[in-house]
Amino acid sequence: MSQAVPLHVDAPVRAKVDVAVVGSGPSGLSAAISAARRGARTILIERYGYVGGNLTAGLVGPCMTSYSLDGTTQLIRGVFEELVLRMEARGQAIHPSKVPANSPYCGYITYGHDKVTPFEPEAVKMAGLEMLREAGVEILFHSTVIAPRTDGDRVNGLFITSKSGIEAIDATVVVDCSADADVVAGAGAQTVYGREEDGLAQPMTLFFRVAGVDDAKVDAYVSEAQEIRPFASIVEDARQKGEYTIPRKGIGLYKTMRPGVWRINTTRVLGVSGVDVADLTTAEIEGRKQVHELMEFLRGRVPGFADAMLLDTAATIGVRESRRIVGEYTLTLDDLETGRHFDDVIGTCGYPVDIHSPTDAGGRLEDDPTANVYEMPYRMLVPRDLDGVLVAGRCVSATHEALAAIRVMPPSFAMGQAVGTAAALAVATGVQPRAIDVDTLQDQLLEDHAYLGPERVPQTVG
Ligand SMILES: Cc1cc2nc3c(=O)[nH]c(=O)nc-3n(C[C@H](O)[C@H](O)[C@H](O)COP(=O)(O)OP(=O)(O)OC[C@H]3O[C@@H](n4cnc5c(N)ncnc54)[C@H](O)[C@@H]3O)c2cc1C
Questions:
Q1: Which of 43, 54, 55 to mutate to test the pocket of ligand 1 (most atoms within 8 A of CB)?
Q2: Which of 36, 48, 180, 202 sits in a 20 to 30 Å window from 368, CA-based?
Q3: 267 CB within 6 A, ligand 1
Q4: Quick one: pLDDT at residue 1?
Q5: Using a 6 Å cutoff on CB, does residue 266 contact ligand 1?
Q6: pLDDT of 85-134, one tens digit each?
Q7: b/e map of 300-337 (b: 16 or more CB within 10 Å)?
Q8: Gene3D superfamilies in the record, alphabetically (predicted)?
């Protein structure tokens, strides 16, 4: 669905709901749970057979920091915190408060990497599913949203395709957590793609995991080498000798909770679009080729990886950036740098502006320091020209640079909780999402353990 294609089909209606959530990644999972807990009859539609999006299918991890940049205050709480605690109780996650910067769990990186959350992808599939079912969400797996149902400038449902054929969903509010703004773009509303100056987006990466690593040897090497970017000199040496062709300067190696198992975030496919099926195919093929080159490199050159074997590759290439909506407000780098306060704040974040270069092997993490805590406003989740829809996660209204900070998984949970709560509020009060009472939304988010800054405290807590 790279652009609006009017769909005129006489599809049978499978469900009539208050809120239909598209996609079960961090944002959609959180949105569906939150809408249902607030009393909305909610359906969650997911093209895969399990929940999690990049948490599971993408093998992406750890969850980057949910804390302020200085690591002192936990900012992302609510549904995210519940999921983490549930997984931790089963020994399948480590609470971020226990994971310091510079640890193997955060790739030995310091800046912006204090208090990440290591977790097992299988744990998300189970714990996420339980939370959805306990909240009363109707779940529809193996179903792809192909277009919105519209009435003028208003979305009032979806067309889905599955083994059951093409069917319709009637919904009072649709929450687009597809990460590509599929619903908003499909309705013909304005969207943008990539950098403002040339439309190029961050590169894609196929995650993979390896087993059989000697964890102690990796640790010993890193503490002895004392490099700001661990392993950078090994990569450079291999590149000089023509033994490393991946267009990326550093390697991202993240220890998992299983002894000897590491996630590798290093393949890089440049110049491909996340909403072009030919490009996605090219990226999958190129990503897989790079995985095999990297296995040789890791085994041959990286201390501790001599006996490593490929455990698995992600079910899908990871897309860092694609289509974004044009919302009532567009979050900017300046908002992040100044820590601008918004009257309609729905979440706070402290993760840095993390840009993998769209054109070469480089990247930016420390170049544009943000405030210690910055705010996300409700209006960036509301499409400017379309009613009946809210958006959360990777496709919200933000500039290329601002998105590079808020795209990670904890803030996606926070945005999801906000839009799920807002959608239920819109249904309950009979207004369009853009017209809800934002004070009430904020009170409800606080009641549900979100954190909106030190000045905002729950009204109902005695
Ligand atoms: C390579 C890479 C590395 C990253 N590293 C990290 C990291 O280390 N830590 C971190 O916290 N974040 C990281 N991120 C960022 C993070 O993973 C994403 O930005 C985040 O998952 C966005 O959440 P989301 O809910 O918007 O989308 P997603 O996680 O992409 O979920 C979208 C869901 O929607 C479903 N879907 C999409 N379209 C449709 C449709 N039409 N019909 C039905 N279902 C649909 C998908 O199947 C998927 O389940 C990384 C991202 C990438 C790509």
A1: 54
A2: 180
A3: no
A4: 42
A5: no
A6: 999 999 999 999 999 999 999 999 999 999 999 999 999 999 999 999 99
A7: ebbbbbeebebbebbebbbbbbbbbbbbbbbbebebbb
A8: FAD/NAD(P)-binding domain (3.50.50.60)
